[in-house]
Automatic annotation (TrEMBL):
<dbReference type="GO" id="GO:0004659">
    <property type="term" value="F:prenyltransferase activity"/>
</dbReference>
<comment type="similarity">
    <text>Belongs to the FPP/GGPP synthase family.</text>
</comment>
<keyword id="KW-0414">Isoprene biosynthesis</keyword>
<keyword id="KW-0460">Magnesium</keyword>
<dbReference type="GO" id="GO:1990234">
    <property type="term" value="C:transferase complex"/>
</dbReference>
<dbReference type="GO" id="GO:0046872">
    <property type="term" value="F:metal ion binding"/>
</dbReference>
<dbReference type="GO" id="GO:0006744">
    <property type="term" value="P:ubiquinone biosynthetic process"/>
</dbReference>
<keyword id="KW-0479">Metal-binding</keyword>
<protein>
    <submittedName>
        <fullName>Coq1 putative hexaprenyl diphosphate synthase</fullName>
    </submittedName>
</protein>
<dbReference type="GO" id="GO:0008299">
    <property type="term" value="P:isoprenoid biosynthetic process"/>
</dbReference>
<keyword id="KW-0808">Transferase</keyword>
């Protein structure tokens, strides 16, 4: 255990388990079609993303390794999980088998099982698939400081490459031979779509009256938007005002769970289950991942107003431009009633987006957003604090949570 107070470098702690992530994913994405292979592996280069999701999966694997109970699950999670998945991948398979045994002999593998390593890769593949589709939906031309896949190859290839990633992630998932884990990660995929749909309801679809009506008439109450009711300003009572504000926030948080927290929460839980942990531990790490995921996205929504495009490596002030009201705007609307109408119409009138940006900065919206994220970070730490035994991995999980509040990109 490192001395208390020291900052843990999670990448160093995870060693080869994390270092080999992108090369393993590239192997899973082998295809006889060279262009499909290039598009699908575009984001899996040495300059890839922050790998937060796989890092969490691996840290949970380490942190729970001494408290896991079900030896039979653990043994199953230790099985060889590789076999050829495309016609020409036999050679890759053999190479990967050598890699697996090399990792099995290393010290890092003492607490991370092959199935947990594969889960880490699956989470990054699902996340990347969602980004490929997201940049098409948002018409975003930069990601990670380089042209997005849609900018480089066009929308059609970006959508198909995202589907391919999901397909290969599903094959790898089914090969873990754990139906509960398959169910958790499949739920994540549908949650990602639901979250994106909830967001569209408030923005793009509203700009397109016909589609908005057809979607709004669906009978899924969980997706009912609180902002679809039109109202006249003179008739709003204070109570109605606060009900609307509460309903908007609930909707925003549900959407945020779906689009970001579900993947983090369910993959943390899946990692614990693959390690043979009991339900109490699996639930604790789920609650950790849920609160951390909410905090992470809330901070992302805040950074959209506070940092430059260069710092972010992607466009900023993007949300209001897309018609989306996130936490800073929802808080600002509680101070400046004129924002209600701009939110209602998805910032589609000229000047709505500039007004929203101005009033966010004139209000306490940014500070209150930071406080909301801080409350979720505290909830995340509390969820694991007494359940996980002290270890460097647990400390890393706590430090990653604290760092969410100070991140700049
Ligand atoms: C980024 O959000 C996007 C997401 C967190 C999820 C997007 C999900 C879909 C497009 C549904 C389809 C899902 C799959 C699995 C194919 P953002 O646009 O707020 O953030 P950004 O600034 O990084 O673009
Ligand atoms: Mg986007
Ligand atoms: Mg988006």
């Amino acid at each position: 255990l490192l001395p208390s107070g020291s900052v843990i470098n999670a990448s160093e702690l995870l060693g080869s388990d994390l270092a080999l992530l992108t090369s393993n994913i590239r192997r899973l994405l082998g295809s006889d079609h060279p262009v499909l292979k290039s598009v699908a592996t575009y984001y899996f280069s040495s300059t890839g993303g922050k790998h937060i999701r796989p890092m969490l999966v691996l840290l949970i694997a380490h942190a729970t390794s001494h408290i896991s109970r079900h030896t039979s699950t653990k043994i199953l999670s230790n099985i060889a999980i590789d076999s050829p998945i495309s016609p020409n991948s036999k050679i890759l398979f053999e190479k990967n088998q050598q890699h697996q045994s090399a990792v099995s002999n290393s010290s890092a593998a003492d607490s991370v099982l092959p199935a947990q390593r594969r889960l880490a890769e699956i989470t990054e593949m699902i996340h990347t698939a969602s980004l490929l589709h997201d940049d098409v939906i948002d018409a975003s031309l930069t990601r990670r400081s380089k042209p997005s896949v849609n900018a480089e190859y066009g929308n059609k290839m970006a959508v198909l490459a995202g589907d391919f990633l999901l397909g290969r992630a599903s094959v790898a998932l089914s090969r873990l031979r754990n139906v509960e884990v398959v169910e958790l990660l499949s739920t994540v995929i549908s949650n990602l779509v639901e979250g994106e749909f909830m967001q569209l309801r408030n923005s793009a679809l509203k700009k397109n009256a016909g589609s908005a009506t057809s979607v709004a008439s669906g009978n899924n109450t969980a997706l009912a938007s609180p902002t679809t009711t039109s109202f006249a300003p003179s008739k709003i009572s204070r109570q109605f005002d606060s009900d609307i504000a509460t309903a908007r926030f609930e909707y925003y948080l549900t959407k945020t769970y779906m689009k970001t927290a579900s993947l983090i929460a369910n993959s943390c839980k899946a990692s614990a289950l693959l390690g043979g942990c009991d339900e109490a531990v699996a639930d604790a790490v789920y609650r950790y991942g849920r609160a951390l995921g909410l905090a992470f996205q809330i901070v992302d929504d805040m950074l959209d107003f506070t940092v430059t495009a260069d710092e972010m490596g992607k466009p900023v002030n993007a949300d209001v431009k897309l018609g989306i009201a996130t936490a800073p705007v929802l808080y600002a609307a509680q101070e400046f009633a004129e924002l209600d109408f701009a939110i209602e119409r998805g910032f589609k009138e000229p000047g709505d987006d500039a007004l929203a940006i101005k009033l966010v900065h004139a209000s306490n919206g940014i500070e209150r957003t930071r406080q909301l994220a801080a409350a979720f970070c505290a909830e995340a730490i509390e969820a694991i604090d007494t359940v996980l035994p002290n270890s460097d991995s647990k400390t890393a999980l706590i430090q990653i949570t604290q760092a969410v509040l100070t991140r700049k990109n």
